[in-house]
Design brief:
Layout lengths: L1 H29 L10 E4 L5 E5 L15 H11 L11 H14 L9 H10 L6 H17 L2 H11 L8 H10 L8 H9 L4 H4 L5 H17 L5 H9 L6 H4 L7 H15 L3 H6 L3 E4 L3 H14 L6 E9 L4 E6 L11 H4 L2 E2 L5 H10 L7 E4 L2 E4 L5 E4 L9 E4 H7 L2 H11 L1 H10 L18 E2 L1 H12 L10 E5 L5 E4 L11 H11 L27 E7 L2 E7 L4 E8 L8 H18 L14 E6 L16 E6 L11
Parallel strand pairs: 1-3
Antiparallel strand pairs: 1-2, 3-12, 4-5, 4-16, 6-11, 7-10, 8-9, 12-13, 14-15, 15-16, 17-18
GO molecular function: penicillin binding; pentosyltransferase activity; peptidoglycan glycosyltransferase activity; serine-type D-Ala-D-Ala carboxypeptidase activity
Main location: membrane
Pfam family, one: Transpeptidase
Length: 646
């Protein structure tokens, strides 16, 4: 048994040496790798206008190793590859340790790429996580080790790595962040720069100074542990409060930073190429942005959002006929808060959830003339608890009101009664049909928007109505092209599916135009009264508020826009102007992006009929209501038959 084990071990070792010999001979035969770092990454809008350029060689000044501060060399070696000068491209003990810890934790908690491997990957390969790529990386690593000495490899590595914000190489990074040459960098500055390439979108001091300094302190500790600096030098460097160069921190703000960040995130998922590679390796990313619309969105938010340092915004515009995301703003300042509230903030929807309820009601036989009592009402919740429902400012009609009016003024009593009538489980089913994916519970209060969703999710839902009941799949990346002109991703439109019955979808859409029609005001004003006089197109929409959230979502045949505003910590919005901000932003912005477009109404399907209806009674126009009626649509055969005569 021992003899067999000895033979197997000997054979395994022999095989390893033979394999390495073959790889070595192959690498020598291939010759030194050709180094080419002339790259730019360009992001385009839907009309192929350049949104932003991630520059390659223009922002990379190659400097020789003796022109780089020794602190930089020591910081990178301590942080990335402490045995760099003692291995042949692969740190075998470190690889074994990483494999062990990753297996133990069942996750990738440690990496083991040497500086040579990283250099090979940055210069010649994509970062796709495939076995083919790993084999290619290994072969190029060996070729670098065979044909270049360690100092040449380190020099190439330091001149090719990406430091964020379009800066490549240590000289460009040194000038950008500290306004000095690479050979003038101090210990504390070198340690900070050495931390950025691990994740420029996380460790850039312009994005998160705290993250950058935490990473710097870790690198200083590594330098001390590996004998590169003394403990005294480490503590002295940790205490220094670094100042980023004015030339870097005062860079002109880019247009659409939240948009392009989300586009790059999506492109990384779609192509299986990591984010750093997309930003730095010469790709061309074609997006769905309408640059003019994006500029107008940002301008409108700057003008209309109250000046509160903590009040945040999330807004997105979708073209319902195609699903293109044409504009997006995920916060007030990307450099300060890169968290994208348009795509990632799940907030309670409030009354913007009511259109889903009333679509279900139409399916269950309601019409715009269906009346329910609007008066103080006590409901019994699912657990038997009594619930005293109320309307805004305790305003009640104290009489029956029509569905058309209840929707326009956002009557909560009507909504709760409707949900009780149709059944909360049916509301959940309809909301899911609209694409709402949150924690949907079949409870009575769901009618008032206790479900949370992101602005993008709500924009998609409303776009289904704008698209006459057909499915809408919002997307942001049209195609991705590599530096050689190869298309690595191309968007393929999905065939739309009929999600909503066309006639019901139109009846609801037309009722949603009522929030801007003062003829529906009575015991409460229509919720869009404050912005109606500035609208020149036909829009349908719904506003909504909860204590910490304020929404406005609306659409035309051309665009759907969802706007949310609130505080990240979910505290109550106190000021009236803060609550009204989404409506004002939505109205001003929608008018701006429709400027020059022909007036277009929602197309009327053949299965509905329009009649002049009295919003108060739900009856046909008659002698006593000739001046107050409104054109209202019904499924054929469900229109009112009686005229208002008294």
């Amino acid at each position: 048994m021992i003899r067999k084990l000895f033979i197997l071990t000997f054979m395994a070792i022999a095989f390893g040496f033979a394999s390495f010999g073959v790889i070595l001979i192959y690498s020598i035969y291939q010759g030194p790798p050709e180094i080419n770092i002339d790259e730019n990454t360009v992001i385009y809008d839907q009309n192929e206008n350049v949104i932003t350029v991630e520059q390659g060689v223009q922002n990379r000044d190659w400097v020789e190793l003796d022109q780089i501060s020794p602190y930089i060399k020591e910081a990178f070696i301590a942080a990335e590859d402490q045995h760099f000068y003692n291995h042949f491209g692969f740190d075998v003990p470190r690889i074994a340790s990483a494999v062990y810890h990753n297996v133990i934790s069942m996750d990738k908690v440690q990496g083991a790429s040497s500086i040579t491997q990283q250099y090979a990957r940055n210069l010649f390969l994509t970062h796709q996580k495939t076995w083919t790529r790993k084999i290619q990386e290994a072969l190029i690593t060996v070729r670098l080790e065979v044909f270049q000495d360690k100092d040449e490899i380190l020099e190439g590595y330091l001149n090719s790595i990406y430091f964020g914000h379009g800066q490549y190489g240590i000289q460009a990074a040194s000038q950008y962040y500290f306004d000095k040459n690479a050979d003038d960098l101090k210990l504390e500055e070198a340690a900070l720069l050495a931390g950025i390439p691990r994740g420029p979108s996380v460790y850039s001091p312009l994005i998160s100074y705290e993250n950058a300094m935490n990473r710097q302190k870790w690198i200083l500790e590594r330098m001390n542990e590996t004998g590169k600096i003394t403990e005294t030098a480490m503590h002295r460097a940790k205490r220094i409060d670094l100042r980023i160069a004015v030339s870097a921190s005062n860079q002109e703000e880019e247009v659409g930073q939240y948009f392009t960040d989300y586009a790059l995130r999506q492109a990384a998922k779609l192509t299986d190429i990591d984010r750093q590679t997309l930003e730095a390796r010469g790709y061309q990313v074609y997006t769905t942005m309408d640059l003019d619309a994006q500029k107008k969105l940002e301008q409108t938010i700057e003008e209309q959002l109250p000046q509160d340092e903590e009040l945040q915004i999330g807004a997105v515009t979708v073209a319902p006929s195609t699903g293109k995301i044409v504009a997006m703003q995920g916060g007030t300042n990307f450099d300060q808060t890169p968290f994208n509230r348009a795509t990632r903030a799940e907030r309670m929807t409030g009354s913007t959830f009511k259109p889903f309820l009333y679509y279900a009601a139409l399916v269950y036989g309601f019409t715009p003339s269906t009346t329910l009592e609007s008066r103080p009402t006590t409901f019994t919740l699912e657990d038997g608890t009594p619930y005293d429902a109320t309307n805004y400012n305790d305003h009640f009609a104290n009489r029956p009101v029509t569905l058309a009016q209840a929707l326009a003024v956002s009557d909560n009593i009507y909504a709760l009664k409707t949900n009780k009538y149709i059944g909360p489980e049916n509301l959940v089913e309809v909301a899911q049909t609209f694409g709402i994916e949150g924690d949907l519970k079949p409870v009575l209060s769901a009618a008032l928007g206790t479900t949370s969703a992101s602005p993008l999710e709500m924009a998609r839902a409303y776009s289904i109505l704008a698209n006459r009941g057909w499915s809408v799949s919002p997307y942001i990346v049209e195609k991705v092209v590599d530096r050689d002109g190869n298309i690595v991703y191309q968007h393929e439109p999905k065939a739309p599916k009929r999600l909503l019955e066309e006639n019901h979808a139109f009846v609801l859409t037309h009722m949603l135009t009522g929030m801007f029609d003062d003829r529906l005001s009575d015991y409460m004003s229509v919720t869009g009264a404050g912005i109606a006089n500035q609208l020149t197109q036909q829009y349908a929409g719904k506003s909504g508020t909860t204590d910490p959230d304020s929404w406005m979502i609306g659409f035309s045949p051309h665009y759907t826009t969802a706007v949310w505003s609130g505080y990240d910590d979910n505290r109550k919005i106190e000021r009236i102007q803060d609550r009204q901000a989404p409506k004002k932003i939505w109205a001003n912005y929608m008018e701006r992006i429709h400027d020059g477009l022909a007036y277009e109404t929602f197309s009327v399907p053949s299965g509905v009929v329009g009649v002049q209806m009295d919003p108060l009674t739900g009856q046909l126009e008659g002698p006593s209501c000739e001046d107050e009626t409104r054109l209202t649509y019904y499924i054929n055969g469900t229109e009112p038959k009686e005229k208002c005569s008294q």
